[in-house]
């Protein structure tokens, strides 16, 4: 979705929720602004970059409050008011308004008369013929609702790993609390840490399958039970479909091997099994009818003469061959990361102070960090000016002493259309480390974008290019680059290409990270944290690096501070 459409959709939802709360006037203001924005020809991000909230307020129907919501969305990808309203509204408006033909008026009616809060309630009421009896509803409305529910459920897009993994862990924790559950593990694409997830797969061994199925289908966040069987059930948990399978302990390893996937990996492994006279399935590794392995994955891979590949690389991209030769790489781990090189504070567009960010880095066990606030065209993202920079220097110095922790004073500087930076040498020379990013003007050709990026790399103050392709997963593909040229220029100028750990970006992607590594580049992983809790996103950067076959030495910020400083010197 383009940003205008995304913002308009949220404003509509705010309007609907306010209306359901019986609030006067405000809903009209929100829906009016949403309508204008929907049909606006200029991109809101561009409007904002051109003239900040002032320019936004020139859009008809956009006042101070809505302009500040738009600003918030552009900076953080969220609108707090929306999240708060969602929390305080008993009705799942988001899903209900996705049903064609249901507007706020009808949703409110359904809630008042039939206590309908979510899609499950709606479907039930429609099937029982209760909806056609309401004023203004007809038999046809009811039929349409049932059809629309089916479509809504079928067309749900893939979710970001950053959304899916915490949900999966939450379910595992709830299952593991039960004494009758011996093991509960995540399988499927989440185990492989793919950037997007279709559905969550969970495997369980238990002394009591029936109890597990009852528990799983009645977990607090289950919105709908799609199927409930003796050993397999499927539910919609929050906004995700989840499969849960119960297995006997003797098959747990073979089931894990099968359901972790990927399908392509499994096909290749099964071929190895056949070539050795075995048969491999989710039920075990068999010679004839005799099961010779199945309890653990290691047992199976070892009988096949293979190492067990870490789930992140099971994509049939060479791991099967390497495992047969016992030449799998020792992949980088979260504990190898010595510091985070990309984070923001309240000096630009983030929430926390320098001290709060640094304290959290220290508590994570890092041995250094870099504070990298925005230097952007005037007024945008509230970036650093020379005066602010000087103040920040003092504050960072004080934090270094107070917390006894090494802090690199860095900046994230915008790359202009012509490849020049939005900061001059006088400013750039003040920093210990300089990150450069493209945040605007991404609609140019591959050649132009490549040229622009290489120009920025040639700037002698730059060390790291952030989120190099500018993609946002499920939102925009990012611009194209001639990677061969970019890698060559990076090496020639001692520039590093970031692997941005924010789940919406994961940029470089796994595939591009692997290409960069193969070209001989070391990769810095940065969280781009805009609040202390986002420093936790490091794990997604690490899993992407693992999917790219990176070892510890392939990752720049596994170096000690001294080594790092030597390494980035230009
Ligand atoms: P997703 O859910 O689309 O993000 O991706 P996965 O990989 O989790 O796929 P899913 O949930 O359909 O199936 C889980 C795993 O089960 C998959 O990674 C491999 C295995 N699997 C599923 N269907 C097949 C199949 O037809 N053949 C083989 N060999 N394995 C399969
Ligand atoms: Ca799955
Ligand atoms: Ca599945
Ligand atoms: Zn940033």
Annotate the secondary structure layout.
Blueprint (H helix, E strand, L loop, with lengths): L2 H18 L5 H13 L5 H13 L7 H13 L3 H9 L4 H5 L6 H11 L4 H9 L11 H16 L4 E2 H16 L4 E7 H4 L4 E2 L2 E7 L2 H9 L4 E7 L3 E6 L2 E8 L4 H9 L2 H13 L3 E3 L2 E4 L2 E4 L3 H7 L15 H6 L14 E2 L13 H10 L4 E8 L10 H18 L3 E8 L10 H4 L4 E5 L8 H13 L5 E2 L17 H11 L2 E2 L1 E2 L9 H9 L6 E2 L11 H10 L13 H8 L2
Parallel strand pairs: 4-7, 11-12, 12-13, 13-14, 14-15, 15-16, 17-18
Antiparallel strand pairs: 1-3, 2-4, 5-6, 6-7, 8-9, 9-10
Helix pairs in contact: 1-2, 1-5, 1-7, 3-4, 8-9, 13-15, 17-18, 20-21, 22-23
Could you provide a short overview of the structure?
This protein has 570 residues and is α/β, with parallel strands linked by helices. It is built from 24 helices and 18 strands.
